[in-house]
Design brief:
The chain is an alpha/beta fold. Helices cover 28% and strands 23% of the residues. The protein has 12 helices and 19 strands. The strands form 4 sheets. The chain has an 8-stranded mixed β-sheet with strand order 6-5-4-3-2-1-17-18. A 7-stranded mixed β-sheet has the order 7-8-11-12-13-14-15. Helix 3 links the parallel strand 3 and strand 4. Helix 9 packs parallel to helix 10.
Amino acid sequence: MTIEVSSTVSAGVASGASSHPSARSHDSVEAAKEVGSALEAVILDVGHGNCAILRDGERCMVVDAPKGTTLFDVLEQSEIWEIEHLILSHMDEDHIKGATRLLWDARFRIGTIWYNPNGMQKSRTFEHLRKQVAESAAAGRVSARLEINSVNPKVIAVGRVRADVLHPDFEMASTGPTSYSSRFGKLTANTLSVALRISLDGANAVLLPADMDRIALDRILSLGVDLSAPVLVFPHHGGRPGDQHLAEFAEMMCAAVSPNVVIFSMERGGRYSNPAPEIVDGVRKAAPRAHIACTQFSTHCQWRNSTGPGRGVVSSSDRPAAGRQVGSCCAGTLAVIKTDSGVIFDPPLNRHLEFIKLHVADSLCKQGEVPSQRPSSN
């Protein structure tokens, strides 16, 4: 069983129509929240990084915890103080920087923290995390620390939320990062990123592939793993996945996932300039009817007027978003919500289309647009 966006919906997205059957009214979103039994996957705008909160009412798990306050703001707003599972996809700072603080904060209790060790990771952030895990376990705020791969555990669940572990497989995970070319190739932290497919009440909803690269994708496809999901949070923030051809990687990724919505979790400006236009070209080629959304306004897009990016923030949601603090929101924090009547998005996807139409003169995400030549991102 999968969450499907109807052909009518896809056509609306592709044509830029303002009405969107899957993007119901804001009142519907608020009603879903007020019931107190929200069943949702929330993709947070954390700038350059990844973070998702997966919840069934008061029960929740968190995937990745980057720097900044957005994760804490959303947890506090939702009055969530117990996280049954904290999953860290890999040990890069833009995925774990906030985990130490989360473990240190006595307001929160973590059931199980899942991550794979990386002996080649020499950052202070990783050292602080290891020490804090030990201290939190001794204080009773963490029940266990376990390694994670597609064999054990195969599934992590809370209530009606299920996370299927699709990668790394046991053999690749047990090899670990290498400084040499193994039989798989040279394995980096990105290659070994934990990839999860999230389902809500039995329906496939979101693919979270972290910083998956071409070696990882080739391995997954060779094993016949099903990656299909209606919503894809694109790997590596839409940046360069190693030395691979960008458009080709994006085409392969989207051909395997067949997404209706593609989200780029990224920061405006800074060290990187994501998503890479070649990546977006590849997404369009393999998934021409998909709705493309960046959490923050891309440096590759041209603002229509002099007010500056993010002044008319697209998000009608009250959910915290990092881009609001610096005036660079585009889609912002985006929630995929499962209701009895189907799937709704908060903010509704048609609001994003309207925002782009009004405020962006040259947008990477416009359907069918042929982008001008732009420099590649890192």
